[in-house]
Design goal:
The complex is a heterodimer of chains A (113) and B (113). With 113 residues, chain A is mainly beta. Chain A contains no helices and eleven strands. Chain A is globular. With 113 residues, chain B is mostly beta strands. Classes of the chains: A mainly beta (113), B mainly beta (113).
Chain lengths: 113, 113
């Protein structure tokens, strides 16, 4: 069965600091991986997705993630945090092309001035 | 192009009452989903549909029903509301060809007292 583990339910960084949000997956088939962002009182918005084309994936708002099969990881990074990055971030996996997403429990990112 | 719309935004129900959460998309997407989001638990799939007239259970279907009579609409029905159904409900859709992004609505916050 597929699953996603997000390490750290809450991450706090200073403005301008590196953002690193961790995601590890378990999948019996080649996975497709996603990062979604949820701003307060809003729905989820896609940040980026990995569909086996390239291991380093660039997304919106300066975020990127690297697929590492050997570590079963898909960590999300941004070199310099901005106050507007404060939100909850969800990693998700879908097995093959079925399309039913399995979400992690989310990581809430706080950005201090 | 409104995307995915959900009504109502917020509702308070008494135990045992019933209600329908509405979801409409104007992108002509084949696949539609209902999720519930509970604090610290990520999103759980309730039901999904791959096209008009076709629905299937997700991870947490008990206490809910769905129908899909048109491509655009995918209502979620709660027959006998219980406190355990207090949650935020999200509807999502995707085209249905390959590994595409799911597009989420703004959510319905439901409180069962």
């Amino acid at each position: 069965a597929q699953s996603v583990t997000q390490l750290g339910s809450h991450v706090s960084v200073s403005e301008g600091a590196l953002v690193l949000l961790r995601c590890n997956y378990s999948s019996s088939v080649p996975p497709y991986l996603f990062w979604y962002v949820q701003y307060p009182n809003q729905g989820l918005q896609l940040l980026l997705k990995y569909t086996s084309a390239a291991t380093l994936v660039k997304g919106i708002n300066g975020f990127e993630a690297e697929f590492k099969k050997s570590e079963t990881s898909f960590h999300l990074t941004k070199p310099s945090a901005h106050m507007s990055d404060a939100a909850e971030y969800f990693c998700a996996v879908t097995p093959g092309s079925q399309g039913n997403l399995i979400f992690g429990k989310g990581t809430k990112l706080s950005v201090k001035p | 192009n409104a995307g995915v719309t959900q009504t109502p935004k917020f509702r308070i129900l008494k135990i045992g009452q019933s209600m329908t959460l509405q979801c409409t998309q104007d992108m002509n997407h084949n696949y539609m989903y209902w999720y519930r989001q509970d604090p610290g638990m990520g999103l759980k799939l309730i039901y999904y549909s791959v096209g008009a007239g076709i629905t299937d259970k997700g991870e947490v279907p008990n206490g809910y029903n769905v129908s899909r009579s048109t491509t655009e609409d995918f209502p979620l029905r709660l027959e006998l509301a219980a406190p355990s159904q207090t949650s935020v409900y999200f509807c999502a859709s995707r085209p249905g060809q390959g590994i595409e992004t799911q597009y989420f609505g703004p959510g319905t916050r439901l409180l069962v007292l």
